[in-house]
């Protein structure tokens, strides 16, 4: 799992109870997972097909820094399945796990699935930069 990105929880990210709104974290997960998948495949024509199990473990609050850990779970002919773990940067407590996020590589013109040409083994070998 590579922790690649961070966000600061701001007042407009909170729900009525003062903790990070679940919808906001799902928005962030979809965006972060897309960026990860696009970088892994070196392609920008990807669409989110499916987001599987989502488990909320702990809360995050205003001022917390959350970080996103991403990894390739599987690679199909035109799809890439990603797992995302969101955790509190300071405490390392897991906030949320989103498993089985499936992206499909599409032809930009026809919008039809297009083989991406990568295997899981090739993707696992890619060295990623981790922020300090």
UniProtKB/TrEMBL annotation:
GO BP terms: acyl-CoA metabolic process; fatty acid catabolic process
Keyword Hydrolase on entry: yes
A GO MF label: long-chain fatty acyl-CoA hydrolase activity
Record Gene3D superfamilies: Hotdog Thioesterase
Domain HotDog ACOT-type: 1-109
Top-level taxon: Bacteria
This protein's UniProt keywords: Hydrolase
One GO CC annotation: cytosol
UniProt cross-references to InterPro entries, sorted A to Z: Cytosol_ACT, HOTDOG_ACOT, HotDog_dom_sf, Thioestr_dom
Family per record: Belongs to the acyl coenzyme A hydrolase family.
Protein name stated in the entry: Thioesterase
Organism: Pseudidiomarina salinarum
């Amino acid at each position: 799992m590579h922790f690649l990105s961070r966000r600061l929880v701001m007042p407009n990210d909170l729900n009525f109870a003062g903790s990070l709104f679940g919808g906001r974290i799902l928005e962030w997960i979809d965006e972060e997972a897309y960026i990860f998948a696009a970088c892994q495949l070196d392609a920008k024509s990807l669409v989110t097909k499916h987001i599987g199990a989502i488990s909320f473990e702990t809360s995050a609050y205003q001022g917390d820094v959350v970080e996103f850990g991403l990894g390739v779970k599987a690679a199909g002919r035109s799809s890439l399945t990603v797992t995302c773990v969101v955790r509190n940067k300071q405490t390392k407590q897991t906030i949320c796990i989103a498993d089985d996020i499936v992206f499909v590589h599409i032809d930009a013109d026809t919008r039809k699935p297009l083989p991406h040409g990568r295997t899981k083994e090739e993707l696992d070998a890619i060295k990623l930069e981790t922020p300090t």
